[in-house]
């Protein structure tokens, strides 16, 4: 999954602010979800919090982030239902250089529409 998104966290901010286009599939007051520009599965959606609040990666999470972290996961479940992924899906959060994180604005990858392999490698 290295370098799936070839954009910076500033570009995520521009997507949130509707300054650059994205294929938005879900949005509420806290999160925005859009189709990945380099999909790794038939369904590949990126889910981001609208307010970063220092949350550049999961390893930077603090207790104050619990609400948004839960909301991100619940939103992923709702989006999976919306996308017809009743047979299953995968959630991926890359963290840090060795976790192949390429955008330092916490984001969740929702992957589905095909059989996932294990180990993910």
TrEMBL record:
Q: Where is the active site?
A: 107
One Pfam annotation reads HIT
* Motif Histidine triad motif positions after renumbering to this chain: 105-109
Q: Where is the HIT domain?
A: 11-121
Q: Which InterPro entries match?
A: Histidine_triad_CS, Histidine_triad_HIT, HIT-like, HIT-like_sf
Q: In terms of domain of life, where is this protein from?
A: Eukaryota
PROSITE patterns listed in its UniProt record: HIT_1, HIT_2
What GO molecular-function term can you cite, just one? adenylylsulfatase activity
Question: What is the name listed in the Swiss-Prot or TrEMBL entry for this protein?
Answer: HIT domain-containing protein
Origin species, per record, is Escallonia herrerae
């Amino acid at each position: 999954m290295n370098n799936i998104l070839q954009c910076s966290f500033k570009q995520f901010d521009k997507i949130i602010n509707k300054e650059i286009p994205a294929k938005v599939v879900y949005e509420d007051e806290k999160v925005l979800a859009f189709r990945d520009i380099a999909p790794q599965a038939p369904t590949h959606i990126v889910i981001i919090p609208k307010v970063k609040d220092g949350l550049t990666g999961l390893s930077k999470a603090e207790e104050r982030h619990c609400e948004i972290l839960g909301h991100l996961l619940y939103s992923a479940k709702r989006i999976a239902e919306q996308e017809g992924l009743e047979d299953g899906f995968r959630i991926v959060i890359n963290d840090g250089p060795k976790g192949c994180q390429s955008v330092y604005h916490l984001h969740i990858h929702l992957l589905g529409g095909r059989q996932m392999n294990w180990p993910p490698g």
